[in-house]
Structures are given as C-alpha cells and as structure tokens.
Q: What sequence folds into this?
C-alpha cells in the first residue's frame, strides 16, 4: 500500500464504526481511483488533502447532526447525539420511578456530602500548608527539663537568644512572650489590648510581612530606644477604621508612647490571636539564673533550607549540653526539642478529625451499597423488560449503554446533591465545631479533590450496581426470561446473593459505627461525672492588668476594687487569683507557673530521679470562698496573712497525697525555688481543682497569699446570685468606678469557660452518634427492602399456602429467618471490625476500654432490633394479603 | 422523509436507473452536478449508509452484464420506497418552483 493510501486509511478511523466497517475497502478503492486520475503531483496533493478534509468533515457531521428520523435501536452507537438521547431516556426512566430515584439520590447525596465535608476539614487542618511561606521549615521549639520528665510548654528568652546565636542549622530562632495586656488609654477610656512581646527573629522566622508599614528594625530591640508596635488587622479595622494614616501615629500604652509602624495581615494570629505585637529585647534580668530557668516564652524556629531534621536536632542536642555546662544552675538537665509547627497547632485535632473522617467513609460505603442494593432489586424486576427489548432487536451494547446512562444520571445527581450538602456542611462545621478558634479555620473551603472523589464513588457505585443485573440480563436467552420460568429465573440468584452480601456489609459497618458512638457516648458521660473541685455556677471571672505609676503591682487597686465589687447588688463573694481555673489558651491571662520546691529543707525526688514541681498561684483570702472550694484541713487565708506576717501556703490534696508519708502535710515547711525563696508554713489543704476541662487530672498545687506575693495581672472571681451574664456590665462599671485608668481585659462566666473545654468531646460524640443513627437507618432500610422484595416475589407462594390452609407461622418463620440470618452474619463480621476500630480510637476514650463488653452487646442488640423491625413489617404485611388478590397478580 | 438532501436526491436518481456501484455513482453524480463538484469517498458512503438505513436504496449483486466479481457487494439500487420518495420530492420541488414563479410575477 502506498504511503498516501495508508494515511488515508488511518484517518478513516475517525468515522463512525459502522460506516467504516462496512465501506472501508470501497472508500479506499475510490480514493485510489481518484488519486489515479490526477495528472501530476500537485493535483495529487490537492486530491489527497481534499479527501482527508472530506473524512474529517464527515466524521464531525455524523457525530453532531440530529438524526431524529432514525428508529430506536438502529442508531449508530458511538455518535454523540445517541449519547444525549440515552441520557434523556435514562432520566425519563428515573422519573418514572420517583420513589426509588428520590431515595437513591438522597441516600447517595448524604453519603457523598458527609464524606466531602469531612475531607475538606481534613485537608485544611492536616494536609494543607500553614499560611506561612515554606511552612514545612517551621518548627515549634520546646524546652524539656528533667525536673519532672515532662516537656514544658515554653522556653526562656535567654535560651532563645543562645540558640539564635549558636544554632547553625536554624535560619531564625524567634521567641514570643505573653500574652500580656497592655493598657491603652485613648479618648478618656482605658482598654486592655492582648499583646505578644516578640524577639527580633520572630517575624523573620515566620516570614510574614505587614500589609501596611513595616516590620521591626533591629534598633527597636535595644532597650531605651523608641518603642514601637505592630497592630493586628482586626484591631486596625475595628478601632481605627482601617485608616492608612495609622502608620506613625503614637499610642499611649501602659503610660508610654509607642509608635505604630505597621499592620499585620488579617487572620495572622501566632502564637495566638492578639491585638498587638511589640518588640521584646533580651535584658539583664533574663540572663540571670532565675531568668534562664523560666519557661514561659514560646519558641519558633525556621530551619535553613539545606538543613536536615536529624542534623539540626543533633546540633540542638550539642548546644543543650554546652549550655548545661556553661550555665549549670539553670540549664543542667535542660534539653530542647522541636516539632513541626503544624503538629503543634493542629496536633490535638488530628484524632477527632481523622476519626470522624473514617466514620464518614463508612457512612458513604453504607450509602453506596444501599443504593447498589436498590438498583440490583430494580434490575431483577427488569429482567423481563430486557428480554423483551432484546427480542425486539435492541442490541446488547445499546441496552447496556442505556442502563449505564441511567446509573450515570443517578450517580451524578446523587453526587451533585452531595456536593450541595457539603457546602452547607462545611459552613456548619466551621461555625459549630470547637476547632473554629484554631487559626485558619476560616479558610476551610470545599475541597475539590474530595468533591471529585465523592462524585466518582457515587457514580461508580451506581454504575456497578446498575450494570450487574443488566449484563446478566443481556446475556440471558430471551425465551427463558419471557416464559413462565422467568419469574423464578436462575439469573436472579446471583443478584440475590450480591444483594445479600451488600446488606450484610451494611449491617457490619453499622455495627462498627454504633459501637464507636456508644464508646464515645460512655466516655462523655464518664467525663461529665468528674468532680470539678469548685462550683462554676454563677461565677464570673474578670481579668485585669493593673499598674500604678511606678509600674509595680497595684495591690491597692485590686483590694479596693474587690471591696467595691462586694458591695454590688447580687454579688455574694469576691476573690482574687493569678491562675484562673478552666482558662484556655485564648482566655488565659498568663501562662501557668510550675516551680520546683523543697519540703522541710529536703528536695523531694520523683521516680525516675527527676525533680518535683508544683503548680503555683497566688490568691487572696476571699478566693476559696468565692470559688466554692471548701478547706479540708487546717485553714484558709485570712486578712491576717499580710506581707509582714509569717509566710504561709496552702496546698491541694494531690500535693498532700504526694507527700503523705504517714504525716499530715499541714505544719510542714515548703520553699519555692523562684525569686525570693522564702520558707512557707503549710497551713491548710484544699480539694483538687480541675483546671483544664473535666478530663485532665489535677496536679499538685500550692497557693500563696496575694499580699505576700503580689502580681499585676489578676482575675476577680465573683460569685453572683443571678445569672452570671447579667452582671457583666455591672462588674465593669464597678471596676471603672474605682479607677477609670485600669482596663478590664475580659469578663467571662466560668461556666462558659468550662463548656469550651467540653466542646470538642461533645461535638465529636454528637456527630458520630448522628452518623451511626444514619447508618442504622440505612441498614434497616436495606434489610426491609430485601425482605419485602423477597416477599413480593413469593406472593403467589404465600397466598397459595394460605389458601390451602397452610400454617402462617411457618411462612412467617421463613421470612424472619432470612432477615435475621443476614443480620447474624453481619453482626458476626462486624464484631471483630468493631473491636479493631475501637482500638484505633482508644486515645479518645475516657473511663471506658476498647473491649467494653457492655457497649458491644448493646450495639449488637440495637442492630438486631432494627433488623427485627425491618423484617417483621413486610412479614406482617404478607400475612394480611388476601389470597385471591395475590393469585390474581399475573 | 422529505425534503431530501440534494446530494442524496442525486444519488437516488443515479441508482434508479439500475444497480450501480460506488465509483460509477460518483462519476454520474459529478456529471449531474456539473462544474467543479467532487464527490469524495467518505461523503459518498456516508450518504449511501444513510439511504440504506432509511430503506431508500438497497445493496444488491452486480448485474450479470458486468464482469468484475470483486465488487459484488458494492452495487446499489433504488427500492420501491425510494422511488416513491423521489416522486414525492419531485412533486414538492415542482410546487415550490410554481409558487416561486407566481410570486415573482405578481411582485
């Protein structure tokens, strides 16, 4: 064959299949004839080109021209308009069965919607990059001391500065101290602005540029130079109306002028949301042994682009050892660790989010198999229809394509509904979920990948389930299906087995979900049952940072204010503390303080040789009463415990348990190793207080009188008669009336703070319960459909038996047996699966083990009863069918 | 069925005279059209396929008067339905021409 003929022959492949098949050789022959007619090469080329163009033109027009004059079943298979026609036909057929279609689309939609929603959240929280450039280079820097073997939250600024100098693998090492409350006095009113004080490498490490103005210059970190500040975007927009003239303006913060040099990007909130960021120079006080021992700053590191994690960690360890030998008083036994920043920010969320995503996948599987089962049932009823069509000359391929289209339309609509639900679902999660405070949650958007995956699963499962019966029917001998035997055709058997399998699968999955929900539910109840240690009801916490002119703690103000508050109507008691229980990262006034100590002159050692620490706070004499904390042994603080009196301390029961040694701890002497180390006499023991929700165990604590250890950031604890919220403005007014220059940072009902800690567990428990309820419903529907279908198929049989006086019980038993048999297998398969998943989520359980028998039994019983109901309804209906009526169904 | 594409009409007229094969159809149609019209294979056989599907022509064997045995399958002739359709189309076209002439004269 000559070259041009070969090319021409190849292009013929563009034509519709039947055209090419029938006339290919003629077309080639004709083509060669034409080429033969050409007199010279140029003409040959022209003919060649025209022939190719002809093929192209025909290929295009045959695919897009409407050929409505063609009879059904005879149209060409691969043309586009045939496809469109089939889609239309498929949709019409779906509309002809509205109940089936509605249910199928809804079920698919719910499954896809749930999965897409969860995956979008997963993507945002766990997969997507943090909003910092090259975020994979960012790590949180922590300090680990052998004091008690635990890694502390923070690091000292002295260590930050040492690391910044010596750590070669790190491009930048930054520190942030806070959150502080800086008092802004503006327009005659004082307000307290949440502020982070950051070191010079903090912003370079994050690589964040202000949207307005500039970041800090190195000279601004020298004490004594002009003081500057960066505003948060929200503060700038809310308070200064986004006026670009804010740059260069002077703000009076804590009675000192600060110049605004820039505005940070919106949604920037590291280490947590705040209103101001200001420079924190490293000062002499930071470099003393006490200063070096602190662990209240947050460290962030950007590793150099070429550094490996192992190399950097190794270098970090060396530096730690060097520092330990250079500064033995403070750094002995101090080690540093780094963790990827993403984990630091979102790490706690990983478990619940992944768990809910896994559950969503299970729900999707249940939904898909449910729809699959529905379609198989439909397929079985259509065996006759297929046989008829095929007998009338419809080609097998055409039939299959028709079913394909129907399933495609079903799957696509289901997927579309799912995507729509996901859009809503994401909004719901973003607002309701307790992770809403995590910075970045505002950015959760529909994840395109999961959307397509969901659509693909929906369409895929619809297709598979739709095709299976169609394929079988297409191969079936039409005579067989059309005859009497068609009603109990053998091809139905395979479909039945498949359907049974799907139902079993759904039951097993439903068991897994229900067990999980049950375990979480029990955990939640256990947590709620925990003793808080104080009375949160009716208590308000008002947080204030107060300074007098010499920047010393202004205890006078606080004492006077407490008195004023006690005079307020509706106030039962007022107390002061430096450490508010149940405050979280967003609401805490300052980071908790843990100190080492000696008891009766001896350093207590913990198992493992580490040093013992105690949580430290300072309270006034009204605190325990205001919080509803009874004094178990000894006494509380009184106004006799002044700064001139004997230093005293009160400990909690956890501390007493640690040091019981057969003696009462009251009367012993404790020396806290921090600042001025004074020996204090323990005068009382109070019950343990839970400080972080209801789950975290209480730790040993020591309370000292505020008069003997003043502080400038205190929380008023106010016990009110009325509903706490109603008192908020009255409290604010009262404080303002004592000294208008002292700004109140925040006022919270303590019950709200407690609720925040519970939020996550409550949320995940409720969501998972919702998932499992949905799963149970679907599984129930699946069984119901199966059994009622089987009943319908044997209507005649049932009726005949009844007509000739057969036992009803026998019939009933048979039907029930079928359904419960499936359930039994499903539960048997589901139990081990449920156990496995219980182990997977055991990190989220509280007070319940993953092998909790009660929950497993209860879940199985619940499923069994759902199955029973689903089986009894069609069975009962079968019993009430009039025999003559049934026999007439021919 | 009507109106028929002009090209299809031409093909029908050609095969109405007797069984004809592809190459011959091409030649005759081009002669009928006159001028520079060229009928290329894909176009031709697409039309033939369509006409076959509509039952206006049918495949047939070569008439005994022609020798070539290889081209046996390629012969086409018009069917009864095809003839009726051609007649109807001719009538339609005649009416069209008559009406057109009438309106041109009155204008």
A:
């Amino acid at each position: 064959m000559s070259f041009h003929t070969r090319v021409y022959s190849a292009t013929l492949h563009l034509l519709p299949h039947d055209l090419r098949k029938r006339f290919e050789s003629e077309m080639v022959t004709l083509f060669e004839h034409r080429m033969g007619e050409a007199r010279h090469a140029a003409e040959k080329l022209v003919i060649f080109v025209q022939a190719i163009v002809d093929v192209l033109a025909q290929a295009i027009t045959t695919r897009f021209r409407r050929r409505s004059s063609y009879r059904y079943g005879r149209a060409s298979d691969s043309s586009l308009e045939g496809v469109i026609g089939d889609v239309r036909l498929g949709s019409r057929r779906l509309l002809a069965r509205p109940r089936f279609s509605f249910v199928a689309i809804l079920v698919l939609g719910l499954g896809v919607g749930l999965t897409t929603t969860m995956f979008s959240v997963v993507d945002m929280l766990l997969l997507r990059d943090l909003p910092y450039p090259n975020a994979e280079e960012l790590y949180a820097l922590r300090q680990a001391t052998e004091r008690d073997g635990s890694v502390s939250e923070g690091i000292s600024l002295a260590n930050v500065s040492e690391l910044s100098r010596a750590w070669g693998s790190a491009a930048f090492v930054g520190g942030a101290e806070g959150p502080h409350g800086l008092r802004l006095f503006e327009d005659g009113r004082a307000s307290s602005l949440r502020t982070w004080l950051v070191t010079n490498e903090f912003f370079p490490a994050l690589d964040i540029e202000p949207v307005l103005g500039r970041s800090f210059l190195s000279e601004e970190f020298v004490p004594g130079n002009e003081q500057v500040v960066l505003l948060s975007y929200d503060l700038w927009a809310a308070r200064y109306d986004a006026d670009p003239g804010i740059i260069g303006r002077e703000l009076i913060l804590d009675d000192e002028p600060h110049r605004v040099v820039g505005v940070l990007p919106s949604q920037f909130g590291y280490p947590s949301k705040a209103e101001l960021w200001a420079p924190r120079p490293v000062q002499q006080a930071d470099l003393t042994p006490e200063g070096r021992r602190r662990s209240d700053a947050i460290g962030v590191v950007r590793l150099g682009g070429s550094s490996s994690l192992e190399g950097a960690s190794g270098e970090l360890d060396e530096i730690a050892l060097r520092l330990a030998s250079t500064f033995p008083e403070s750094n002995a036994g101090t080690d540093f660790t780094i963790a990827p920043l993403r984990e630091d920010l979102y790490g706690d969320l990983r478990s619940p989010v992944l768990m809910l995503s896994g559950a969503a996948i299970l729900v999707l599987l249940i939904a898909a198999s449910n729809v699959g089962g529905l379609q198989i049932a439909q397929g079985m009823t259509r065996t006759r229809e297929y046989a008829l069509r095929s007998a009338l000359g419809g080609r097998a391929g055409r039939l299959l394509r028709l079913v394909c289209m129907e399933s495609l339309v079903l799957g696509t609509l289901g997927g579309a509904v799912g995507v729509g639900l996901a859009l809503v679902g994401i909004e719901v999660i973003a607002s309701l979920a307790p992770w809403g405070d995590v910075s970045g949650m505002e950015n959760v958007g529909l994840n395109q990948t999961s959307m397509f995956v969901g659509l693909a699963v929906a369409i895929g499962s619809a297709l598979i389930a739709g095709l299976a019966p169609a394929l079988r029917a297409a191969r079936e001998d039409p005579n067989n299906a059309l005859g009497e035997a068609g009603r109990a055709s053998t091809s139905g058997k395979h479909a039945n087995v498949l359907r049974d399998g799907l139902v079993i699968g759904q039951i097993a999955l439903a068991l897994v979900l229900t067990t999980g929900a049950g375990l979480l539910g029990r955990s939640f109840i256990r947590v709620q049952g925990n003793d808080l240690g104080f009375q949160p009801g009716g208590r308000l916490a008002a947080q204030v940072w107060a300074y007098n002119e010499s920047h010393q703690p202004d205890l006078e103000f606080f004492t006077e204010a407490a008195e004023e508050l006690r005079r307020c109507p509706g106030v039962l008691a007022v107390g002061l503390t430096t450490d508010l229980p149940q405050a979280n990262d967003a609401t805490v006034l300052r980071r908790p303080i843990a100190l080492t100590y000696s008891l009766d002159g001896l350093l207590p050692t913990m198992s493992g040789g580490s040093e013992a620490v105690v949580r430290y706070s300072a309270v006034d004499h009204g605190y325990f009463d205001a919080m509803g904390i009874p004094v178990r042994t000894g006494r509380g603080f009184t106004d006799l415990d002044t700064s001139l009196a004997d230093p005293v301390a009160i400990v909690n029961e956890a501390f007493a348990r640690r040091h019981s040694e057969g003696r009462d701890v009251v009367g012993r002497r404790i020396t806290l190793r921090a600042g001025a180390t004074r020996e204090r006499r323990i005068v009382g023991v109070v019950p343990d207080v839970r400080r972080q929700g209801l789950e975290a165990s209480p730790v040993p604590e020591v309370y000292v009188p505020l008069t003997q250890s003043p502080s400038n950031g205190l929380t008023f604890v106010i016990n009110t008669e009325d509903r706490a919220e109603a008192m908020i403005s009255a409290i604010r007014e009262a404080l303002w009336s004592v000294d208008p220059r002292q700004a109140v940072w925040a006022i919270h009902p303590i019950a709200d703070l407690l609720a925040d800690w519970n939020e996550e567990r409550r949320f995940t428990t409720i969501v998972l319960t919702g998932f499992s309820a949905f799963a149970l419903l679907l599984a129930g529907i699946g069984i119901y459909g199966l059994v009622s279908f089987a009943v319908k198929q044997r209507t005649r049989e049932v009726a005949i038996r009844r007509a000739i006086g057969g036992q009803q019980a026998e019939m009933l038993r048979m039907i029930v047996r079928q359904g419960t048999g499936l359930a039994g297998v499903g539960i048997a398969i589901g139990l081990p699966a449920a156990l496995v998943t219980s182990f997977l989520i055991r990190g989220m359980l509280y007070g319940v083990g993953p092998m909790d028998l009660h929950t497993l039994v209860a879940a199985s019983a619940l499923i069994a009863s759902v199955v029973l109901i689903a089986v009894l309804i069609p069975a009962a209906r079968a019993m009430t069918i009039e025999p003559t009526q049934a026999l007439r169904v021919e | 069925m009507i109106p028929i594409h002009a090209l299809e009409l031409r093909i029908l007229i050609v095969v109405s005279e007797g069984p004809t094969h592809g190459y011959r159809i091409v030649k005759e149609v081009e002669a009928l059209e006159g001028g520079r019209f060229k009928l290329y294979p894909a176009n031709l056989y697409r039309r033939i396929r369509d006409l076959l599907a509509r039952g206006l022509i049918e495949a047939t064997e070569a008439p005994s008067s022609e020798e070539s045995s290889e081209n046996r399958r390629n012969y086409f002739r018009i069917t009864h339905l095809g003839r009726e359709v051609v007649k109807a189309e001719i009538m339609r076209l005649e009416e069209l021409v008559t009406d057109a002439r009438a309106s041109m004269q009155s204008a």
